[in-house]
């Protein structure tokens, strides 16, 4: 009974049926179940340790160190001074930074919505059976495979107001030349053109995948009921591909918010600061001016913005799932 | 060994240099030809550091390529092994700052752009003072002839306190490329002053034919030297002796108005986004009458595969402004890391890299404009040297009237950014005086902070 009591006290093995087994285990000096689980937990901890160390070293530490540095006025090559929240309050009144936030949202909104609409339209076209569909679809997806910097360099030449091919094309249809990225008002829409050309195929592929998985029965019954093509799309296709559209929107938003190469190569944030997004501003602060403290504060604010955006998109995605 | 040699007091060195005769007098208070006699008597030996290895950090450019191509020659000459890394300009500057700041850079010799890095490097004492080596008979090569170096280059290499922190390699004075055919069609001669530049631009500007009277950089940051080219001619400057910016003075405003008039009124559409490459392509197509930029574009201008104006281009020295005739100067050179443990071999590399043979090669390969005057004569003797004589003359005349085209301050990139935005705004119609006032107010605290740090 003593062993039994002991097991009761342990709280894991109960009842006479277990007494013999327990006795046998204790008689060959095997670990008690409690010890077994404790050891198992220890070994699990040891096994996960390398991953934890890597995550701590490459994600947690840099992040905490960035937050720490954002509390300092530090330019590389000079002594760092603790300034508390001054870098953040400075950003609140920094006209250029606030404008960069606006430019980022403007660019992101256009660079998500336009490819989404164009990609969906392209997917609907390529979903139909027609001659040469495979070849055309392959050609359509080619821009997606090009290197962003190379794409940006080619577009820079195309945008040239005097010698660029875009103004030549406009002249063929008797339209006046445009300044494209050389105009403060047109620069962001022009940069979005590059994004649209580059990333519409990605949206098309995602939506096409969605269309391929749709059942045919609802369409047949709707047609029997006399539904028009538009009604089919509006009331059947669109709700069913909504989760795919949200997925495409999430991917495009992440890409557009972090866009740097295209803007840097084509306009460098100009003319003036007309296309300077948070990324461009951050790059200048950190790697051109070496203002590490201020750049760290920008990173923290940027992270907060991205986090809010991600939560919003996740919420929308959940809703899309429920409605679907 | 020689690393322990105490530097000569600046005044003493200056006195010695001034005593060195006409050659040094022409150079001002700079290392002069007088030192050569001492060198000639010394026991200089290129093999002194045989068996050692040095690391070089170069910038990816035609000049970097050229030096790398001939590193074997240096290795054969000295027995010193060279390890070199060549990376793009922006990344090289970032790497330099980060590695110097760590106190343990990976290189012994570094290439630097004077207009961006001179003050930054000097302020942080990142480079080694070369005077002990220059004055040591056993360390200075017999053909290290400072009398052969252009004044502008030596000005860049020497600090105000007399320290010689690097050897200059390449100069980039700004000149005006002008289309002789377009000028002749309107019966115009090359401008003799600033007013005539504006006048000629007005007469030559013909939007109906797609011809602009004037083209230059409008893109922020890149555009600042265009304005400073005018600013120096108006007698203006950047910072006074008390560390206060002089970038909103009447001279600065007049220069900005000239910039605005030339680019906004007589420049091409969209010039606010033009860097040198857009300006170059327009000029090469014969669609711009004048183009103000660095001297190093003769090769594309005279290349029939790229240019429609081959043989029709004049290379003009910057005309005199109301107060002075100045060519805005940029340049680069090489120095030795203060943290290097192989300063002797590194100094040998510097001497080799800037010698007459390499400077002549640079010109022959159109990889830059050498600092050594003798390189121009030597290059022209070569049968495959294709640069026009007018370009060579323009280069030499411009180098003689050159002054730094940007302030020699540590936060020069921020300076270019802040004033670059102001200039771009002017092209888009903003008031020059108001923009300069705003930029000066914005930048003064940055400058104050950098000098206090």
What does this protein look like?
The complex is a heterodimer of chains A (324) and B (453). Chain A has 324 residues and is mainly alpha-helical. Chain A has one domain (89-323): MetI-like fold (Orthogonal Bundle), CATH 1.10.3720. Chain A is built from 14 helices and two strands; from the N terminus they run αααββααααααααααα. Chain A has a two-stranded antiparallel sheet. In chain A, a hairpin with a 7-residue loop joins strand 1 and strand 2 (81-82). In chain A, helix 5 (95-127) packs across helix 13 (278-288) and helix 11 (229-257) runs antiparallel to helix 14 (292-323). The radius of gyration of chain A is 30 Å and the shape is flat. The N and C termini of chain A lie far apart (61 Å). By secondary structure, chain B is of the alpha/beta class. Chain B has two domains: 2-172 and 329-403, Periplasmic binding protein-like II (D-Maltodextrin-Binding Protein, domain 2); 174-328 and 407-452, Periplasmic binding protein-like II (D-Maltodextrin-Binding Protein, domain 2, 3-Layer(aba) Sandwich). Helix content of chain B is 45%, strand content 12%. Chain B has 21 helices and nine strands. Chain B has helices at residues 10-18, 22-27, 35-41, 62-69, 71-78, 89-102, 114-123, 131-134, 151-157, 180-185, 194-204, 224-233, 250-265, 276-284, 298-301, 343-353, 356-364, 374-381, 389-400, 412-427, 432-452, and strands at residues 53-59, 81-87, 109-113, 167-179, 290-294, 313-316, 327-336, 369-370, 402-404. In chain B, strands 1, 2, 3, 4, 5, 6, 7, 8 and 9 form a nine-stranded mixed sheet that branches. Chain B is globular, with a radius of gyration of 22 Å. In chain B, 53% of the residues are buried. At the A-B interface, helix 13 of A face helix 6, helix 14 and helix 20 of B.
């Amino acid at each position: 009974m003593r062993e039994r009591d002991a097991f009761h006290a342990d709280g894991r093995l109960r009842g006479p049926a277990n007494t013999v087994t327990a006795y046998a285990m204790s008689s060959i000096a095997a670990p008690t179940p409690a010890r077994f689980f404790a050891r198992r937990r220890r070994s699990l901890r040891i096994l996960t340790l390398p991953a934890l160390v890597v995550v701590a070293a490459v994600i947690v530490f840099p992040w905490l160190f960035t937050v720490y540095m954002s509390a300092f006025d530090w330019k590389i090559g000079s002594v760092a001074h603790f300034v508390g929240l001054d870098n953040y309050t400075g950003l609140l009144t920094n006209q250029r930074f606030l404008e960069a936030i606006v430019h980022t949202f403007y660019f992101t909104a256009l660079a998500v919505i336009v490819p989404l609409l164009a990609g969906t339209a392209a997917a609907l076209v390529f979903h139909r059976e027609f001659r040469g569909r495979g070849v055309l679809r392959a050609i359509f997806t080619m821009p997606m495979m090009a290197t962003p910097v190379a794409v940006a360099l080619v577009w820079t030449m195309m945008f040239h107001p005097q010698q660029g091919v875009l103004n030549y094309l406009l002249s063929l249809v008797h339209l006046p030349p445009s300044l494209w990225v050389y105009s403060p008002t047109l620069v962001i829409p022009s940069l979005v053109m590059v994004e649209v050309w580059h990333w519409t195929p990605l949206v098309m592929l995602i939506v096409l995948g969605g269309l391929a998985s749709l059942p045919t029965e609802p369409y047949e019954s709707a047609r029997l009921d006399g539904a028009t093509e538009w009604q089919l799309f509006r009331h059947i296709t669109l709700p069913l591909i909504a989760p795919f559209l949200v997925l495409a929107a999430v991917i495009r938003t992440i890409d557009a918010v972090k866009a740097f190469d295209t803007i840097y190569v084509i306009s460098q944030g100009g003319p003036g600061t007309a296309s300077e997004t948070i990324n461009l501003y951050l790059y200048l602060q950190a790697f051109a001016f070496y203002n590490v403290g201020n750049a760290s504060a920008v990173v923290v604010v940027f992270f907060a913005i991205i986090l809010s955006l991600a939560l919003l998109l996740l919420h929308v995605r959940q809703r899309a799932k429920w409605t679907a | 060994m020689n690393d322990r040699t105490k530097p000569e007091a600046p005044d003493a060195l200056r006195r010695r240099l001034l005593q060195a005769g006409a050659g040094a007098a022409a150079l001002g208070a700079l290392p002069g030809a007088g030192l050569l006699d001492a060198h000639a008597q010394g026991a200089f030996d290129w093999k002194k550091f045989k068996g050692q290895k040095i690391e070089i950090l170069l910038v990816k450019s035609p000049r970097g390529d050229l030096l790398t191509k001939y590193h074997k020659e240096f290795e054969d000459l000295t027995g010193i092994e060279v390890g070199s890394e060549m990376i793009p300009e922006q990344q090289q500057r970032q790497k330099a700052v980060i590695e110097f700041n760590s106190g343990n850079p990976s290189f012994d010799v570094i290439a630097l752009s004077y207009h961006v890095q001179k003050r930054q490097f000097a302020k942080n004492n990142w480079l080694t003072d070369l005077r002990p080596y220059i004055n040591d008979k056993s360390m200075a090569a017999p053909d290290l002839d400072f009398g052969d170096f252009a004044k502008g280059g030596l000005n860049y290499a020497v600090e105000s306190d007399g320290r010689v922190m690097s050897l200059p390699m390449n100069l980039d004075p700004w000149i005006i490329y002008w289309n002789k055919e377009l000028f002749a069609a309107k019966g115009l001669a090359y401008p003799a002053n600033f007013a005539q530049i504006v006048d000629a631009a007005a007469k030559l500007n013909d939007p109906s034919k797609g011809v602009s009277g004037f083209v230059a950089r409008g893109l922020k940051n890149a555009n600042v030297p265009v304005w400073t080219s005018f600013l120096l001619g108006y007698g203006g400057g950047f910072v006074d002796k008390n560390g206060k910016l002089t970038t909103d003075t009447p001279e600065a405003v007049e220069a900005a108005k000239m910039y605005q008039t030339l680019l906004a009124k007589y420049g091409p559409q969209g010039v606010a986004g033009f860097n040198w490459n857009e300006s170059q392509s327009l000029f090469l197509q014969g669609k711009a009458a004048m183009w103000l930029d660095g001297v190093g574009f003769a090769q594309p201008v005279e290349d029939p595969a790229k240019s429609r104006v081959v043989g029709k281009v004049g290379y003009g020295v910057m005309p005199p402004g109301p107060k002075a005739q100045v060519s805005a100067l940029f340049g680069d050179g090489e120095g030795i890391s203060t943290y290097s443990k192989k300063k002797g071999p590194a100094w040998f590399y510097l001497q080799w890299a800037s010698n007459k043979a390499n400077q002549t090669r640079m010109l022959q390969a159109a990889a830059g404009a050498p600092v050594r005057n003798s390189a121009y004569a030597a290059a022209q003797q070569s049968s495959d040297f294709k640069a026009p004589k007018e370009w060579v003359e323009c280069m030499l005349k411009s180098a003689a009237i050159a002054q730094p085209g940007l302030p020699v301050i540590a936060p020069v990139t921020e300076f270019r950014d802040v004033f670059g935005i102001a200039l771009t705004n002017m092209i888009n119609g903003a008031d020059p005086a108001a923009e300069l006032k705003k930029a000066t107010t914005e930048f003064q605290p940055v400058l104050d902070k950098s000098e206090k740090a």
